[in-house]
Specification:
Elements lengths: L5 E4 L3 E5 L5 E6 L2 E4 L4 E4 L3 H18 L6 E4 L4 E5 L2 E2 L2 E8 L2 H7 L6 E11 L8 E2 L1 H6 L5 H24 L2 E15 L2 E7 L7 E5 L9 H4 L5 H12 L17
Helix pairs in contact: 1-6
The chain binds thymidine-5'-diphosphate (TYD).
């Protein structure tokens, strides 16, 4: 079989040409990076877990009427997605202070915010994804005011869905990042959820113990990242009976 054409390689995923026009194949790698790729490692099984978890969240969003790029999972590491034009923003929703917000404002991590807060970073690795105000986004033409209003509404709906799903399995959704894509139906443009939703791009804390079940385990050397993501997948019921990596069967009880 001829090798598929690679369209793009990122830090955690590769995009290949899809089987039909307007589609792509998204491949989840095991590579983990943090601090703008200054820290990197290969975490066996991460890609398999994130493929499954992103499928789970995207399917759930579609079921409540939130459009996403996800079409279907193809195999352990790949999913078929709609090709989109990515809006060059990291859309971040925060429910509790953590990470850069806690640092910037001198807040203790885990402090509940008065209401969910949406913020935007400009997607540019060379610049370290700087926080940008809406004024910049509109002035530089990355999105217009109508797009931004729609993006904020979408992000808050995703937040409600994700917070509820997580709360149901004893996990607090501290914050998360999504990316938005544009799709065109003739002259009509729609904004849909793109990229991935996984513990790589969320902060997830156990409600009872406060244990971190997200990429901070890797960023801060807090133990096994695979164990943390497996725990999230297990609680959500998305793990098959054997382990997600297809290796040794794991005990699920
Ligand atoms: P933030 O606290 O701003 O940054 P950091 O993760 O560097 O401390 O991140 C808020 C949330 O958004 C967190 O769950 C990580 C996620 N995020 C990404 O996944 N990718 C990104 O490029 C950015 C800026 C944030």
């Amino acid at each position: 079989m001829a090798r598929r054409k690679m369209i793009y390689e990122g830090k955690a995923k590769i995009l290949y040409e899809g089987p039909e026009p307007g589609t792509l194949v998204q491949y989840f790698k095991d590579d983990a990076t943090a601090f703008n790729a200054e820290k990197r490692d290969v975490i066996e099984g991460k890609g398999v877990l994130n493929n499954r978890l992103s499928e789970f969240f995207m399917t759930g969003l579609a079921n409540i009427g939130i459009p996403t790029h996800f079409i279907r999972r193809l195999n352990m590491r790949e999913q078929l997605i709609r090709a989109v034009e990515i809006v060059p923003l990291e859309v971040i929703v925060r429910n509790y202070a953590a990470g850069t917000m806690a640092k910037r404002l001198g807040m203790e991590e885990g402090t509940q915010l008065p209401r969910p807060v949406v913020e935007f970073s400009y997607k540019n690795d060379d610049l370290g994804d700087p926080l940008v105000p809406e004024e910049y986004i509109i002035a530089f033409g990355w999105a217009n005011q109508q797009d931004l209003d729609d993006i904020i509404a979408l992000a808050l709906r995703v937040n409600d869905f994700m917070s509820g799903v997580m709360m149901g399995v004893g996990i607090k959704l501290i914050d998360f990042k999504i990316e938005i894509g544009r799709v065109y139906d003739g002259d009509f443009m729609r904004l849909i959820i793109a990229d991935e939703i996984s513990p790589d791009s969320c902060r997830l804390w156990d409600i009872e113990t406060g244990q971190k079940l997200d990429k901070d385990v890797f960023r801060r050397d807090l133990g096994s990242l695979t164990d943390a993501y497996t725990e999230v997948a297990r609680r959500l019921g998305v793990l098959p009976k054997t382990s997600a990596t297809g290796a040794k069967p794991t005990l699920i009880n």
